[in-house]
Each structure stands twice: as C-alpha cells, then as structure tokens.
Amino acid sequence: MNHTPSSSSPRSLGDFTWHERAACQAGPDPDLFFPHPDQTEQIRAAKTLCEQCPVRRTCLDAALEDGDRHGIRGGLTEEEREPLHRDLPHRLDHARVAATLGGRDVHLTDLERHAVVRAAYEAGEPSAHVARMLKISDDHVAKLYRRFRRQLRNRTLSQVTTPPQQATAPLSRDDVGPAA
Ligand code: SF4
C-alpha cells in the first residue's frame, strides 16, 4: 500500500511558512502526535487530522529530509515512515532538479545533485553558476563536467561501427605501417 500523499512543489530550504497552514497548528495537544504504540484511538485521531491537512506532503518531506523519525508526521506513524526514510537516498525527483535549475534552494539527494550538474552541463551552463547553485566549489563542478565530457566521448566512440569487411578481415603486419 502506498502511504505517500500526492506530490506537490518541493519546499524551499529554510522556508517554514508552511507551518502556518498546518492543521495541527491551532488545535490539538502536540502530544497527540506522539502516541504510544498501543494508543490506537490517539493514532487514529492524529491521522484523521493529517488527512485534512493542506501541507501534509510538505510535512512528510520535511520529516524525511530532516531525519525526523519520531511521532506522526504527514499522516504516517514512525513505523509507516521508516521505509521512506531508508529509500530517501535513492530518490531522483525531476521536479527538484528543475526547481534547482530554476534558482530555488530545495533539498536534494546525491542522485538529484548529480542530475542537476548533468542537466547544467548539457545546457552549457558555466561551471561557476552550478557551483553557486549547489554551494560547492567551482573546481568540483569542473571535475564533474570533465567526467561528463569523457562519458559522452566514450559513448560516441562506442557507437562508431566498424565496416563489415574490416571487421572480418584479419590485420596483416603491413596494415600497421612500416617499421621505424
Ligand atoms: S500533516 Fe503534519 S503539519 Fe499536517 S496535521 Fe499532520 S503532523 Fe501536522
């Protein structure tokens, strides 16, 4: 069963304005979201509130990205959230890559950071611009750009096919030129 709420625009890092729209902001005792495992009524009440919450997805994202494993977040209990915590490093969310390329500061996994550099390289972005976007050194981006260049070159070379007659005819000593 998929517990993940429908996706929305990723939150910007350092932006906590979504707290103001949280369904739990003005009402219940915060302890409601930290039930003991056998407090099923409390768990049900907290989850019902989360289901009506307009920032449920953002709340869940924040919990995963902050490594917050305690209590109910985004409508999921600690146990329900655990597989999502484990899977987070494998996330490759193209909306986040696009948001970063568009100048927003959002949480990125290593895979997403790599995808940002790759897309920037293919778009001809200066490495210094990417370095600023990802808050890493220009040298590091330049190194990644060189790696992409080599990968593209290798792919191009591997696509070059040898003409059939050359592929089947064995090389003779004369084919490699005269001796020095
Ligand atoms: S989803 Fe998060 S912010 Fe919304 S009510 Fe539940 S715990 Fe509060």
Please report which band the strand proportion falls in: under 5%, 5-15%, 15-25%, 25-35%, 35-45% or over 45%: under 5%
The outline comes out as: elongated
The secondary-structure element order is: HHHHHHHH
Hetero compounds? iron/sulfur cluster
Q: Stretches where pLDDT falls below 50 for ≥5 residues?
A: 1-7, 171-180
> What is the tally of helical segments?
8
* Straight-line N-to-C gap: 71 Å
How does the major sheet shape up? none
The value of Rg in angstroms is 26 Å
Structural class: mainly alpha
Roughly what is the average pLDDT, rounded to an integer? 86
SS elements, strand count: 0
Helix content: 40-55%
Structure, described:
With 180 residues, this protein is mainly alpha-helical. The protein is 49% helix and 0% strand. The chain contains 8 helices and no strands. Helix 4 crosses helix 5 and helix 6 packs across helix 7. The longest helix has 22 residues. The N terminus and C terminus are likely disordered. Iron/sulfur cluster binds next to helix 1 and helix 2.
What is the compact description of this entry?
With 180 residues, this protein is mainly α.
Topology of helices and strands:
Blueprint: H1 40-51, H2 56-65, H3 78-87, H4 94-101, H5 110-122, H6 127-134, H7 138-159, H8 164-168
Helix pairs in contact: 4-5, 6-7
Please describe the structure with a list of short key phrases separated by commas or semicolons.
180 residues, 8 helices, single chain, disordered C terminus, mainly alpha, binds iron/sulfur cluster, disordered N terminus
